[in-house]
């Protein structure tokens, strides 16, 4: 691991005292405080943050950069809630623009991947009364019966809180039931911003921040893993971002069950918050870097390429990120509907590997639990083996 840039920073007498103290803490692997994180958001420029975050990224993972082969299953885009940032949900009254798949239709989607080398199905969508505890338990067990090695990463505390309340069961019993049915991990969605001052404005009615955290905690107590997200860059203040990460850091301290933190950039197309401008790419990178520095007990920071563009995903690998999610196969609509650059998100394994190699990192295919499936550092794809020459036009 190269410490020269960090040492150079530390030897710079013109660097403000607070900057130097935080850099020293990072070098000595000490935890930074809440106030220091707010200070970084307010005062630190990108180059400085990049040196610190990349130092942490490299002592945790060297050049390794993870991706997986997955597809999304989105049962419905109808939803009983009305989150202001959501471009995806069609309230039940706008039913003509929506879809709600039956169990058979969902299994047809799963069967479409028979024989394909995918390792994970990520299930995410809206909340509807007909999808209850029994429905989801039957879905998970049907998927596992059909393809036992396919990892089921499904739903968020938003759905779980809703279906457990309806079934009158507590979180602990509910999560146990889901595990028995075949659920293997929880994606990070539904977290938005935990702080009630913001949550009540953008995502009122659905589960609170405390309920989101309580459901993950019950899941972790069963020995299971999950992810966490943060929807940033809208009406929240820097203090709210740090508060959000602080609650995650505390829960992680108690359970160790989180695998990865995924900052989700607010996109402003076709939703009720279209008047709120999106933040710049500089702010995206600063945010990844501060997350990497603050969340010292999280192993991984993920940039979701489908939402921030392939180029920003490449850049993020120098700002603390070590994972860029998966192939997706054009099976998710959440971000394209919100104005993300990728309108039909799908990348072949070769494209993902090339994207990572182009910026001199090592592409590692992982499964959902970060077991290494394959190291692609020295893999030559068939297309690469035969050099392509362009025929020059003959000029007479
Ligand atoms: O909770 C909705 C977000 C999330 C918008 O765990 C928006 O591996 C930005 O959580 N602008 C769902 N974001 C997706 C999600 C996720 C994605 C990829 C990987 C994983 C993982 C989890 O999408 C929602 C919400 O925070 N979202 N609308 C929008 N306009
Ligand atoms: Fe429903 Fe989720 Fe959209 Fe909120 S973000 S309206 S819970 S689909």
List keywords for this structure.
single chain; alpha/beta; TIM Barrel; 2 domains; 4-stranded parallel β-sheet; 16 helices; 13 strands; globular; binds iron/sulfur cluster
CATH architecture of the largest domain: Alpha-Beta Barrel
Going by CATH, the homologous superfamily of the largest domain would be Aldolase class I
Specify the overall morphology.
Answer: globular
Order of helices and strands: HHHHEEEEHEHEHHEHHEHEHEHHEHEEH
What does the largest sheet look like? 4 strands, mixed
Count the domains: 2
- The average pLDDT score comes to 92
How far apart the termini lie comes to 57 Å
- The number of helices is 16
With strands numbered from the N-terminus, the spatial order across the biggest sheet is 11-1-12-13
Strand content: 5-15%
The bound ligands are:
ligand V47, iron/sulfur cluster
Record field, number of beta strands: 13
CATH topology of the largest domain: TIM Barrel
Q: Name the CATH class of the largest domain.
A: Alpha Beta
Task: Give the secondary structure arrangement, pairings included.
Layout: H1 4-10, H2 17-27, H3 34-43, H4 46-61, E1 64-68, E2 70-73, E3 78-79, E4 90-91, H5 103-112, E5 120-123, H6 133-146, E6 151-154, H7 157-167, H8 171-181, E7 185-186, H9 196-202, H10 209-221, E8 225-232, H11 238-255, E9 258-265, H12 281-294, E10 300-301, H13 305-308, H14 310-316, E11 323-326, H15 349-358, E12 362-366, E13 372-375, H16 382-385
Parallel strand pairs: 1-11, 1-12, 2-5, 3-4, 5-6, 7-8, 8-9, 9-10
Antiparallel strand pairs: 12-13
Helix pairs in contact: 3-11, 3-12, 4-12, 5-6, 6-8, 7-10, 8-10, 10-11
The structure holds ligand V47 and iron/sulfur cluster (SF4).
Iron/sulfur cluster is lined by residues 79, 81-83, 86, 88-89, 126-127, 158, 206.
